[in-house]
Amino acid sequence: MAIWNPIKWLLGLLSLDLGIDLGTANTLVNVRGKGIVINEPSWVAIDKRTREPQRIGAAAKAMVGRAPANMVAMRPLRDGVISEFDITQAMLEYFIHKAHENSIVLFPHSRVVVGIPSGATEVEKRAVYDATMSAGAREAYMIHEPAAAAIGAGMPIDGYGNMIVDIGGGTTEIAIISMGGIVISRSLRVAGDELDQDIIEYIRSKYNLFIGEQMAEKIKIALGSAYPLKEEKTADVRGRNLITGLPEAIEVSSIEIREALAPSVQVIIDTIKDALDESPPEILADLMDSGICLAGGTSQLQGLAERLANEIRVRVWVAEDPLTCVARGCGMIFDDVEQYEGLLVGIERDPYSSGQS
Ligand code: ADP
Ligand code: MG
User: Fold this and answer.
1) Collapsing DSSP states into helix, strand and coil, what is residue 20?
2) Which helix (H) or strand (E) element contains residue 71?
3) Residue 302, exposed/middle/buried by CB under 10 A (0-12, 13-18, 19+)?
């Protein structure tokens, strides 16, 4: 039973509750009562010499491949989890401060829920926690991204078995949730970024054409698929001819791009099958009713849901607004912290600190 604390109560009145999706491709900040106020690419442009962040978010992404010689644009969470601690911290602080910009709140002492990949290590969890607290949070909680995605997608958390697959930029996160907790989870470092690389590699080896990551992503969104399309399409790809060194444009078809993506798509499907393989029979029986919900940007790959449904023989659907599920789910925690307690992630206490464990 909580004791009423007047100072905490007063701070609560004066602060914003934030839900943050710290994604490898996009970072979203959801302010309780306002909705999503920040939705920006997880990019930071740093000074090459000092490593000081110069631009963050959309402004940094715009510099990719066009940055002046002394700067470089990078993604601090690129390989699934946090590959650059300091820069991730700077980015998180920047977004938390920015979320407070247009509020009448005097003290930026917020309660914050941050989504973290289910494969995050203790060190990485600690880094996110510290970054959140040092950005001025009053309380920080962490939740595994697929659990947040499930809440945001409106799945019943308290009931029988449910499966969510969050396919983002750096990772695919799979979770089976039952009775308020995670039963099985899998984190796979194959997702949207890997698909972009597959396209780059395919175009290079088939056409001797070298294309950039942004062009590859564009082609993936326009033509990429996991299942034959009703009407196959074509698009122009621009890059550098590796033999002449000159710019060149060629036409590629959705059939070719599907072929390029097939191995990675298969890895994602096989990992989902593995997770099902491990599930206890009662849960499998539940899943035959509840189906599988897909979230994250890459869940929008054309034909992916159909392909999965075909291979797994369970109903599969894409959540409404799949790019914002995690941020919305993080925000919904504040509506009923007790209900979601089983899904929150703690950090191990520092064995050298004075607190008891
Ligand atoms: P993260 O959680 O890792 O930040 P997101 O859920 O924001 O990732 O998804 C970003 C990924 O989704 C990127 O790889 C992007 O290319 C991909 N993506 C976005 N829209 C589409 C689409 N319509 N089809 C296929 N992939 C898409
Ligand atoms: Mg995500």
Assistant:
1) strand
2) strand 71-74
3) buried
Query: Residue type for 308, please?
Result: L
Task: Please answer whether residues 134 and 93 qualify as being in contact, where contact means their C-beta atoms are separated by less than 8 angstroms.
Answer: yes
Cα angle: 344, vertex 346, 349; to 5 degrees: 170
Backbone angles phi, psi at 230, to 5 degrees: -60, -45
pTM for the model stands at 0.91
C-alpha torsion sign, points 333, 336, 337, 338: negative
Beta bridge partners of 21: 28, 115
State pLDDT tens for residues 218-251: 999 999 999 999 999 999 999 999 999 999 999 9
Gap from CA of 99 to ligand 2 centroid (Å): 19
Whether residue 134 is predicted with pLDDT greater than 70 in this model: the reply is yes
User: Taking the CA of residue 199 as centre, how many other CA atoms within 13 Å lie in the half-sphere pointing to its CB?
Assistant: 29
CB-based pocket (< 6 A), ligand 1? 23-26, 168-170, 192-193, 217, 220-221, 224, 296-298, 300-301, 323
- pLDDT surpassing 80 at residue 337: yes
CA separation (Å) from 117 to 21, 31, 87, 164, 206? 10, 21, 18, 14, 35
Q: How far is ligand 1, taken at its centre, from the CA of residue 192, in Å?
A: 6
Q: Name residue 303's amino acid.
A: G
